[in-house]
Amino acid sequence: MYEPIPILLQNSFQIAWDFLDRSGEIADADEASHFLLSVINVLLLKGERRVLMLSNKSISAYKKFKAERRVDAAA
Fold it and tell me: What residues contact residue 44 under an 8 Å CB cut-off, 6+ apart?
């Protein structure tokens, strides 16, 4: 089933946001929202159209981003 890009973006973002929020991963809402939207946009530009793939990849990228920042802060 075809969904317009804005709907894909909105649904993917909401799934990722809800998951990260419930797991306590979001410390800075502004930073998290910009990061997730950026990752989802890149994936959409590359042709990905599966909502769960978009949300799962953005969640993984955000977790990796946060882990790398913790390592940099500790160094």
Answer: 5, 8, 9, 54
